[in-house]
Amino acid sequence: MKYHDYIWDLGGTLLDNYETSTAAFVETLAEFGIEQEHDCVYEALKVSTAFAIEKYAPEIENFLEKYKENEARELEHPVLFEGIPALLEKILDQGGRNFLVSHRDNQVLEILSKTKIATYFTEVVTASSGFKRKPDPESMIYLRDKYHITSGLVVGDRAIDVEAGHAAGLDAYLFENVVALKQAIDM
Question: By three-state DSSP, how is residue 173 classified?
Fold first, then answer.
């Protein structure tokens, strides 16, 4: 194992949520009489929710609130990427630690509970923790300093995750799939 500590992003890294988020976004657009291709919305959401709204629904008042309602319903049944629970457990078995940094609120804790991976994390930082959003490294610096992380890897699926990790003085990995990640960290 190359690193002792791992700081994970949730959506798109541990949780395969882009599909559920895309379904909710397309559904919300349809409620306002707008049809949009799944793949286009998917790519826009990978940039950010704000980007997708600006691109497809900039003039729709309360779109974000309605979308979040639909997304929350979709997230009642969260799905992890295959192999994630085993990888998190293996890190712990080898003496490592897992941390989580998410821009979502404390809904994250419910998702971790439903997917039965909450016990794998030493600490979970959410939007409710009060830190600035990534790419600001504030939350990662907090974890680095609190837990004396000297051999840490930030794992996320977007450039902002990598940018925040590097700005916090940590190595970072742009997640594509579990198999490639396991090879990269010698697991």
Answer: strand
The CATH architecture of the domain made up of 3-13+79-183 is 3-Layer(aba) Sandwich (3.40)
Q: Peptide bond preceding 135: is omega within 30 degrees of 0, i.e. cis? A: yes
Instruction: Report CA torsion sign: 100, 104, 106, 110.
Output: negative
Reported as a single tens digit per residue, the pLDDT across 32-44 is 999 999 999 999 9
Tally the residues of the chain: 187
> What whole-number distance in Å separates Cα of residue 105 and Cα of residue 124?
11
CA gyration radius, the chain: 17
Q: How many CB atoms lie within 10 A of CB 137?
A: 21
Q: What is the pTM of this model?
A: 0.82
